[in-house]
Amino acid sequence: MGFMRSSIKSGFYVELRNSLCYLSCMELSYAYKRNPPEAPKQYMDKNGERPDLGCLLGDLREGDVVLVHALSDLGRGRGLTAVRSKIEAAGATVRVLERDKRDPGRPRTFAPNATQDAALRELWLSRPELQGRWLLKAAAEIMGHEVPRHALHNRYGARNQ
Predict the structure, then answer these.
(1) Half-sphere exposure of 98 (CA within 13 A, CB side)
(2) Which residue has the higher pLDDT, 97 or 19?
(3) In whole angstroms, what is the distance from residue 40 CA to residue 131 CA?
(4) What is the DSSP annotation of 76-95?
(5) Considering only CA atoms, which of 70, 74, 25 is closest in space to residue 52?
(6) For the packed helices 78-89 and 51-59, what is the interaxial angle rounded to 10 degrees?
(7) Which own/partner pairs from 155-159 qualify as long-range (CB within 8 Å, at least 24 positions apart)?
(8) What are the helix (H) ranges across the chain?
């Protein structure tokens, strides 16, 4: 009786008794306290004991690729070193995915230069036909990044309706 692992992206494995025929590698993903990356087989832990990390390490085969958002998902310090050595001993590799570009971290401060300030003042006080998102879109084009409505209100006062 055989055992089969399948993957749409990477191909498949077929294991018959003790011999393993590698036709392609399989992607496995792991995450700690967040959603795991998209992969045919996903593991996710929500507490400090990390039982799914142990399952992942047990399921690894030669040629597999472990996808993570950040190395800190696998552990920290000596724990990370131990997990990486177990992954490498199994013949697998770790691939860290790029950070989402839409999440730049801390928002920018609202500090327009003199030219931007004059353009924003004119936009805020003299263009009542622009409302809601259209107003904020025009302000973002002037500044080069998103501008919150409250920043405009705090700087230039109430709008003329």
Answers:
(1) 4
(2) 97
(3) 45
(4) STHHHHHHHHHHHHTT-EEE
(5) 74
(6) 20
(7) 155/110, 155/120, 156/120, 156/121, 156/124, 156/125, 159/124, 159/125, 159/128
(8) 51-59, 78-89, 114-126, 132-143, 149-156
Predicted local distance difference test score (pLDDT) of residue 89? 94
* pLDDT computed for residue 14 by the predictor: 39
Q: Model pTM?
A: 0.50
Could you tell me if 92 and 66 are in contact, meaning their C-beta atoms sit under 8 angstroms apart?
Answer: yes
Return mean pLDDT, the chain: 80
CATH of 25-96, one of 3.20.20.80, 3.40.50.720, 3.40.50.1390, 1.10.3720.10: 3.40.50.1390
Between 45 and 130, the more confident residue is 45
Beta-bridge partner residues of 113: none
Please tell me the distance from the alpha carbon of residue 146 to that of residue 102, in angstroms, as a whole number.
Answer: 12
Q: Give the tens place of pLDDT for each residue, 107-122.
A: 677 889 999 999 999 9
| Integer Cα distance of 131 and 151 in angstroms | 15
